[in-house]
Write a structure and sequence with these properties.
The structure holds two protein chains of two kinds. Chain A is built from eight helices and three strands; from the N terminus they run αααβββααααα. Chain A has two domains: about 70 residues; about 90 residues, no CATH class. In chain A, about 60% of the residues lie in helices and about 5% in strands. The N and C termini of chain A lie far apart (about 60 Å). In chain A, strands 1-2 form a two-stranded antiparallel ribbon. In chain A, about 25% of the residues are buried. Chain A is mainly alpha-helical. Chain B has one domain. Chain B is an all-alpha fold. Chain B has 20 helices and four strands. Chain B is about 75% helix and about 0% strand. The chains are: A mainly alpha, B mainly alpha. At the A-B interface, helix 1, helix 2, helix 3, strand 1 and strand 3 of A face strand 1, helix 8, helix 9, strand 4 and helix 12 of B. Strand 1 of chain A pairs antiparallel with strand 1 of chain B.
Chain lengths: ~200, ~500
């Protein structure tokens, strides 16, 4: 994390010099990049800093408590465990077949695949597959999973219909000609709702 | 327009249709989102934010504020019933709320939470309306250098209010400022850090950043958490007795409300701080006869009486100076800016009626919280039983759709993922996400005021610290110095004094 921030700081500091940004486009981003650069640099070498500077860099301070403590292990802090009462392990289709997949990684990977698939083929068409795959992976009931997929499509349709979002068109595949005219169902729904 | 005229116009706006309808929807949505452990108000507000694009500014801001206020109460439902606070601000409520629930007094605890929340939220909204003429005077005294310094002070305060390393907090804030400079420069039409990508010419939309940092990152966190068993909970106790309990402890209620509003007004501090301070103060002052941690009703009254006044209090720095105190107010500020409103003098001068409409809707919202809060108690457990595996994909679908809607730009959707992952690791390694978000939201304002100040002074940086020409700037600069270095200088100073 610190190395990433340091490199990002370097890029943001050097880029205006290479690309010769005018002064009023350069000063503010360079000032902020310098702050990131110096801050992350100090955190990286905190264990080799002299006493007073080290305490400034590594000490954790809060105005809500009187104490300050030295944080030697700034990047290994684990989030506190939540209450353990009445919690159950998540069951997945993968675990059934002996594949243990990290839940956080699963969220990120599926979200990235969903993003690229949505960009290529249109969110409207990809969303039901994403929702069904995600929920079935965690063994949500099939009926609930299909209901959620339909609900998600309905939400996207509202975006398309009322905000003019082209969620039915992808950059690689264009399935928009296959989009049914859902508006023709509206009178039936309104009539049904009025009963 | 006089302040009184603006106030009455604000009342008319707040009670008009569909504004009052949006307020009711926002409150209900807030209560439900707040009750879902791991969701809470920032996530809900971040998802709803792009959906408010077609709306007028006033109902949109009122809708977001109503979600915020509703979530404050909603958070206590999960805290009391399943010991898993729906929002961070409800964490203090678990200390005595859950034991009350285990003692068969869940209805009492929920009634205490809704009554104390609503009653003090109601009183705090009145205080806010009465306080606003004074605020107007203060806000109008600020100029460009002061606004730039306030942005820096806001980030400095956040780094110190949220526990952790100050340097890490400053790095997070500076990183936010830095990311906000991507795109076409404010003062010249020069593209910056776009690396030849046209999609980056408009920069990273701060609403997409908010969605990423709050919604996407929270979903990553939620996925990593163990599932709370969805079993039927029996809710026992008496609602009437719970309401009476709040009035039995008027000092606790009022004192906690004052603490909540006071802490809420401090830029950088949110309801998490105020509720714990209110709880700690009550435990201290009632130590003789209190059974805190075992289901003492005062342990529920104190944090719940503090949380909604914190909403009112946090509106002061958010609306007057554009310095939010929490994730929720950062999203609210994002909404204010997205709808073309400018926090500061304009909201307290030409658009004063909008500010008053917001205050009045907070006032009315608390009446509704009481009515809704008390009536949903028998069904409250149903909300907490929602499966997180159902919530996560739906939030991601809504996040993508919302981010794309902002500018029809795929880079905004990409930013949701990238900043979501960054936000997840920032939380994991104790970097202040609020400072980062504040940096992104305030970046353009800070940069503009920074350059305007330098234009005024002819390039002299002394404008930020000149005690005679700009006394307010000088005071703010000293405040920044004291906030950042005070905690380290204080022990040294005490050592020197004790030696003498």
């Amino acid at each position: 994390m610190l190395v990433f921030l340091f490199v990002l700081g370097v890029v943001f500091f050097v880029e205006p010099l290479i690309e010769e940004y005018p002064e009023d486009a350069r000063v503010f981003p360079q000032l902020t990049a310098a702050a990131v650069l110096v801050g992350s640099g100090l955190l990286l070498v905190r264990n080799y800093l002299p006493g007073p500077i080290r305490s400034f860099v590594a000490e954790e301070v809060s105005i809500t408590s009187d104490t300050t403590e030295l944080d030697d292990d700034l990047e290994t802090a684990e989030p506190p465990e939540s209450d353990e009462e009445r919690v159950v392990e998540k069951e997945t289709i993968g675990s059934e077949y002996g594949y243990e997949v990290n839940d956080t990684a699963f969220v990120v990977v599926t979200a990235i695949v969903y993003f690229f698939a949505g960009w290529a083929a249109g969110f409207f068409w990809v969303t039901p597959f994403y929702v069904v795959f995600y929920t079935l992976w965690y063994k949500v009931r099939v009926t609930k999973s299909v209901f959620l997929a339909v609900l998600a499509m309905a939400i996207l349709w509202v975006f398309m219909e009322f905000l003019g979002m082209p969620f039915d068109q992808g950059h690689v595949f264009d399935f928009s000609p296959f989009l049914p005219d859902f508006r023709q169902f509206l009178p039936f729904l309104l009539e049904w709702g009025g009963r | 327009m006089s302040a009184l005229e603006a106030f009455f116009e604000g009342v008319v706006i707040a009670v008009s249709w569909p504004v009052i309808g949006y307020m009711a929807i926002g409150l209900l949505l807030g209560i439900v989102l707040g009750a879902l452990p791991g969701i809470g108000s920032p996530v809900g507000m971040a998802i709803v934010l792009p959906l408010t694009l077609p709306m007028d500014a006033t109902p949109a801001i009122i809708l977001l504020t109503a979600i915020y206020a509703g979530a404050m109460y909603g958070g206590s439902i999960a805290a009391i019933l399943i010991n898993a606070p729906g929002t961070e601000s409800a964490a203090a409520t678990t200390l005595d709320g859950y034991p009350m629930s285990k003692n068969g007094l869940a209805k009492n605890a929920l009634a205490i939470a809704s009554t104390a929340s609503a009653l003090n939220g109601f009183l705090a909204a009145i205080a806010l309306i009465l306080l606003s003429p004074l605020l107007i005077e203060v806000v109008l005294a600020f100029g460009s250098p002061e606004y730039f310094l306030l942005a820096v002070l806001g980030i400095s305060l956040i780094t110190i209010v949220t526990q952790g390393s100050i340097v890490k907090g400053l790095v997070a804030g500076a990183l936010g400022f830095m990311i906000s400079t991507i795109g076409t420069a404010i003062l010249t039409a020069r593209p910056r850090y776009t690396f030849g990508q046209f999609g980056l010419y408009d920069g990273i939309d701060f609403v997409a950043a908010l969605i990423g940092m709050f919604a996407f990152a929270e979903m990553m966190k939620l996925a990593a958490q163990k599932q709370i068993a969805g079993e039927d909970l029996e809710i026992a106790g008496s609602i009437r007795e719970g309401v009476r309990t709040v009035f039995r402890y008027p000092v606790t209620t009022i004192k906690s409300g004052i603490i909540g509003m006071g802490i809420g007004m401090v830029p950088g501090s949110g309801a998490t701080t105020s509720t714990f301070v209110a709880y700690a103060e009550e435990a201290r002052s009632s130590a003789k006869d209190g059974k805190f941690g075992e289901g003492d009703p005062r342990g529920v009254i104190a944090p719940e009486a503090a949380n909604n006044p914190t909403v009112s209090g946090s509106l002061v720095p958010t609306l007057s100076f554009g310095i939010p105190g929490s994730g929720s107010t950062a999203v609210l500020l994002g909404g204010i800016l997205m709808h073309g409103l400018q926090p500061g003098p304009v909201l307290f001068d030409e658009q004063l009626q909008i500010t008053y409409a917001l205050f009045v809707s907070v006032f009315l919202g608390n009446v509704l919280i009481l009515a809704v809060g008390l009536s949903i108690i028998p069904y409250a457990s149903k909300i907490t039983e929602l499966d997180t595996n159902v919530i996560i994909p739906m939030v991601i679908v809504l996040s993508y759709a919302g981010a794309f809607t902002l500018n029809r730009n795929w880079f905004d959707v990409g930013a949701v993922i990238a900043l979501g992952v960054l936000g997840f690791y920032m939380v994991r390694y104790n970097y202040s996400v609020i400072a980062f978000v504040l940096g992104i939201v305030l970046g353009p304002i800070a940069e503009e005021n920074f350059f305007r100040s330098l234009q005024i002074s002819g390039g002299e940086y002394r404008i930020f610290v000149h005690p005679i020409d700009r006394p307010l700037s000088f005071v703010l600069s000293v405040a920044i110095f004291l906030v950042l270095f005070g905690p380290f200088l204080k022990p040294k100073l005490e050592e020197v004094i004790s030696r003498r």
